[in-house]
Write the structure tokens for this entry.
Amino acid sequence: MVGRESLRKRRTKALLRRVAVLVVVLMVAVLPAIPIWLMYGWLVSQSFSGRVILGVLPSKLTLENWRFLWSPIAMGEKEYPNIWPITINTLFLALGVAGLVVMVSSLSGYALSRMEFKGRTGMMQFIIALHAFPSVILLIALFVILNKLGLYGKGFMTLVGIVLIKAGLEIPMATWIIKGFFDAIPWDLEWAALVDGCSRWRVWRSVIIPLVLPGIGAVSIFSFLSGWSEFLLVFTYVAQEEYYTLPVLIYHMIGEFIHIDWGMLAALGLFYAIPTIIFFSVSQKMLLRIYVGGVKG
Amino acid sequence: MVRVTLDNVSKFFGKVKAVVDLELEIRDGEFVALLGPSGCGKTTTLLMVAGIYKPTRGRILFDDEDVTDLPPKDRNIGMVFQSYALYPHMTVYDNIAFPLKLKKVPKQEIDRKVREVAKLLQIDELLGRKPAQLSGGQRQRVALGRALVKEPDVLLLDEPLSNLDAKLRILMRAEIKRLQKELGITTIYVTHDQVEAMSMADRIAVMNKGRLQQYADPQTLYNKPANLFVAGFIGSPPMNLIEGSVVEENGAYYFVTPSFKYRLPKEIGELVASKTSDVILGIRPEDIRIVIGDGDDTAINGKVYVVEPLGRDLLVNVKAGDTLFKILAPADLQLESGQDILMAPDERKIHIFDKKTGKAIV
Ligand SMILES: Nc1ncnc2c1ncn2[C@@H]1O[C@H](COP(=O)(O)OP(=O)(O)OP(=O)(O)O)[C@@H](O)[C@H]1O
Ligand SMILES: [Mg+2]
């Protein structure tokens, strides 16, 4: 009978432990997220309402706050450029960064993972060190370089310059991430492709790249978002308003604090967040679909 | 089909000597097994034939053409890897079709050949699946299909059966052997399973620590092992190997150990004594007869230690002093632990090795 009682006791203990774990998880993971969700909810309701009661309750459903989608943005006396060219600038910047980063890092990651050459280890250490520099530190040096290249104050070409800079800053980390994906592919697969009749280049294209697609997806999403949200470089280097990107535009609008139109700002904020939301809902599946042992299992 | 020659081939990885001075000739259409313990350089040898590794020294010839510097894609080789290495993102069909696509074979012809090979290997039902959805045996057959579809000159198989269960392994052994004979492809088959090598290969190359130990047909390997390593490696249960010395007394030659003394046939004794005195005597478990009661004067006294029934026979462990013998005896023999018996080795089946060099003398 002693044995049975101790069994019951152990069961109760296990149950208690599980409840405790649940409570801790709830406190750590769920509670902090609640204000964030509340804020999003507030943003949505704010953007669609004409008047807000006590700063919380929306009333008078309207699309007035979204008028920037079809008319120039006026706030106080100042008129801002139309939203669409600005969106296209932002999109250009983000896609440019993502494209460049994916192109370079999928090649350099392969080289670092698969090829033996002098200074390979040194290069990998250097890459990690590179990532330690935030772009603020480089602002002046980059300015000099942009100027030398004749890309400063040249409107659209300045954006191209910023794409190059931003991609350059992202490439080391992206290379590192993709290298990890290449490392996970067994040599056997590559050899099998060589024996089957591939050149090294063809192996990379037909066998290796399809297997690291999840990694490429991850890198392209991260670099897209980092380009999309880039503020400092555009703010510093772009002088003409028509080459602003969304973050800079929003910044300037907030700056006009006397005439601030909270409803429109909320709508603008949501508009700005759309790609982020789309990308994360898509990428979530993609990232979870990474071949786990798919090579043999 | 070609003849493959490894001409004094070595492969070093830094300090590690994976393969040392390998001399091997595989005849046109021959099935050769590379046999040896883990890490002895089998895979390395195969990868050199495939062109993945470049030998540190030596040459590799297909017929009379030197292919040492030829990249893998120009060697027309089919290979099944230890891990199968199927392309996870392609269906079985695409896996098998891949080598043909690379050769720019017309689509219809690819389709015909893929289906033909799939039928031959009985995987035609699986063509639409991804490798992850296959069992080990099915994967192995897909890998074989991918290697065969391009009608290679040389087929390289790296332990293709090691991931299968015992029953499937025996089935696939026969299957692969039949296929090889039917297609007549020069084949190198890597394995560390001696039964597999013995049952499938025309000739076996036994390797140890990167060096070729003996290259012969299975019978020769079994009956005339060239050295201690081969003697101990081939055969299950393994050969009894006993250290001792050969001495002459009154014109007769004896093999002497602290535990027992055994009179050698005169010719053998003379031959051995003329070369060395420190030797190792080898005798296979099935070449010793157990005698209960009186035997002739050459028999060795022993005590039954343990009896292990193997089904068809008994594996009897017998102790002569401190020396343990393993003997295969008929299953109906009645023996008890502790029983005194006599062991009568078959004189014609005795092997004697030089203790210093390990080389066979008799
Ligand atoms: N790329 C490499 N770099 C360094 N050493 C290696 C490399 N490949 C193999 N070796 C070494 O060479 C030796 C032979 O390796 P190999 O893979 O040919 O063995 P194997 O006979 O195929 O063994 P197994 O039966 O375990 O597959 C081993 O000692 C191994 O550690
Ligand atoms: Mg191996």
